[in-house]
Every structure is written in C-alpha cells, then in structure tokens.
Design a protein that fits this description.
The chain is mainly β and 123 residues long. 0% of the residues lie in helices and 54% in strands. Strand 5 and strand 6 form a beta hairpin.
Amino acid sequence: QVQLVESGGGLVQAGGSLRLSCAASGRTFSSYCMGWFRQAPGKEREFVAVHSWSSGSTYYADSVKGRFTISRDNAKNTVYLQMNSLKPENPAVYYCAAKLGDVNVSYKVYHYWGQGTQVTVSS
C-alpha cells in the first residue's frame, strides 16, 4: 500500500519561503510520477507541480513557474516542493499525490494522496 506523508506547511509572510516534503513508502517509485496540488476552501483542487521519477522531467503551473521548484531525494523516497516568493492568497491545503506512468496535471487521475499540509501566506 502506498503511503504519502506531507510536512512543512505553516504560516509565512508574503515574499517568504516554505519547503514542503512528501515522504513516500510502500512501493518502488521508479515508475511513478509525484504531483503537488493545492485546494483552497470552496475551490477545486488545482495542479501546482509534477515530477516524473523515471524521466526526471518536471512541470509547473504557470502561476508558480519561476518561484516553486520540485525536487527529490532518492535515498529518502521523498519529494520536495520549495516555494519562494510566496504571494498572499487564500489559505490552501497542499497535497502530494502519486500515479503510475506519465505525468499528468489532472488531480482526477492520481491514485494515491497524502493527508495534506496547510499553507497560509499573510500580507
């Protein structure tokens, strides 16, 4: 059974940084892609970034491109989301997700999800 555990959320001032972590277990993730999504209250879950464990490719939502960076630590089976120059936005829960195969920006095709970590950016 795949387990994903996020950490690193919190309250930060606009312009600041946070690094989210997603520790994965239960599988060999060489054929998986790992995505980050976020969801604000009353809104649909939206794509933030995705990383392919096999190809190493990464993709970002236009809204975070140039500010967020996704990376991984193979030894720890962990994927990170470094978030810089954070903007004041509605609080959102950030989720880590995993799926087999090619990268995809739709949350609907991801099979495994973490519990989420809250991120709040104050102005």
